[in-house]
Amino acid sequence: MKKKTFVVIGMGRFGSSVAYSLCNQGYEVLAIDSSEQRVQEVAHTVTHAVQADSTDEEALRALGVRNFDVVVVAIGEDIQASILTSIVLKEIGVPFLVVKAQTDLHGKVLAKIGVNKVVFPERDMGNRVATHLVSPNILDYIELSDDYSIVEMLAAPSMVGKNLRQLDVRAKFGCNVMAIKTGSRMNIAPQATDLIQEGDMLVVVGKKNQLQQLQRALGE
User: Fold this and answer.
1) Which of 119, 137, 161 is where one domain is finished?
2) Residues 61-76: pLDDT tens digits?
3) I need a surface site. Which of 73, 104, 110, 151 has the fewest CB within 10 A?
4) 20 and 115 assigned to the same domain
């Protein structure tokens, strides 16, 4: 199967991090920024790095941006440039467009343009940090939508030695345990009779308020 190819526009902290992570996983990445200095800084960590004005349709066409599977617009403070770039990319006909939004209004405008996925990295990171601060047993937190999230949590002492049927997380809290990690072994389809051991990590999906109730109950 052919690996996906990516374009990342905007080599600030977020954009360069995305580009580096994708390249590190073996994907082809074209990095674009209007600053020659930033292009030089990332040139050794990505497949290709080019200085270009992302609001210039002809420049993006010349770079063959529409031939890549996914384009990520990670432009930082310049909301106008972010929106104009997104419009140009939609005009060109890129297959899948992901854009970083600074504010809710910015995100709404991007959605109206027809952006496939709008991301709020600063807000999402703030939510993660806050969740970790109030719930120390939460190891990771992924927001799926406005209502649903996935959490990776360390098994609380009250869970150890019990199986999923005894814990009855679904009936009590409306959450589903999707996986249990014991050491290096991941149980992707846990059974009702599977015992929770000390040090286990649970991957749980549910509505945010349900997950919060679960976290509070485990902390008691």
Assistant:
1) 119
2) 999 999 999 999 999 7
3) 104
4) yes
- Judgement on whether residues 55 and 107 belong to the same structural domain of the protein: yes
The reply to whether 112 and 214 lie within a common domain is: no
Whether 142 and 98 map to the same domain: the answer is no
Name the pTM for this structure.
0.65
Percent of the chain with pLDDT over 70: 89
* Arithmetic mean of pLDDT, 134-159: 74
What number of helices (H) and strands (E) belong to the chain? 9, 11
We report the CATH number of the domain holding residue 211 as 3.30.70.1450
